């Protein structure tokens, strides 16, 4: 995929391909094609059909834009022997008696550390390895091989494409294909030429028969009527089953509403009993506390008069003062508690009233649901 914007991530491209194709194998950015704005992306497919389909389209829609899609063919590589480091054959076909170091050209098994030997190509005498593509000998062998294949493309296997470097291209052709593929006969064309559409012996005409046509229509109409009856019967069964299910659901709903109503009534009764009990407690407290406070106040006044008597000695006067102070504190405390009890009683009555109203509303709503 060519010239994909850098703001489109590789993961987005992968998701877009997976939405249309199911055989995506690998996907990666092509090193050397990235610039400030765009780059090329290489992806491989497992399915040959999807591979050919996307190549035939030549375009791919992604993020509202259309990108060109072309087949990726890597540069042709040479087969270089790993024993003598000469191109054109493999190790098993090599005639060399020793393994030659590709760095210095000496025997690899002569006991010298060939990881630190002097790099000098024995092909051209330059400072590079013997298998490097910078070597003039290797490049010359490659050029000769490409020229030979271009002169006679039948030496390539069928259905094989070979990428051509820029200097070997003729008329803008980037790839080299085998000419054997074009010479293969097309069986479909031969088979198509055998039959003649106008030959009545080869393609006999069918005689029309009105009786058979009428019989066919009658059979077809009967089969349609029978099918309609079967469908109607199935529909009635489904309808009957649905009505039974609806009736059962209504009965269950009525039972649930009735049970909920009973629970709410019990809660309401419990609320009333609790309210009455609490009211009785507060009433008792409010009735008992004032006489106690009055008694304490009377006792306080008596002690004050006794303490004002001249005949009372100093020790007794001090005891009376202490008792007067404690009595005054007790009177104030009882008065405050009585006022607090009255306030709490009023608030609790308000809450109980609201609670009762909510329960009554719930009962009325359930009654409406039950009547409906």
TrEMBL record:
<keyword id="KW-0479">Metal-binding</keyword>
<dbReference type="InterPro" id="IPR001878">
    <property type="entry name" value="Znf_CCHC"/>
</dbReference>
<keyword id="KW-0862">Zinc</keyword>
<dbReference type="GO" id="GO:0008270">
    <property type="term" value="F:zinc ion binding"/>
</dbReference>
<protein>
    <recommendedName>
        <fullName>CCHC-type domain-containing protein</fullName>
    </recommendedName>
</protein>
<dbReference type="GO" id="GO:0003676">
    <property type="term" value="F:nucleic acid binding"/>
</dbReference>
<keyword id="KW-0863">Zinc-finger</keyword>
<feature type="domain" description="CCHC-type">
    <location>
        <begin position="81"/>
        <end position="94"/>
    </location>
</feature>
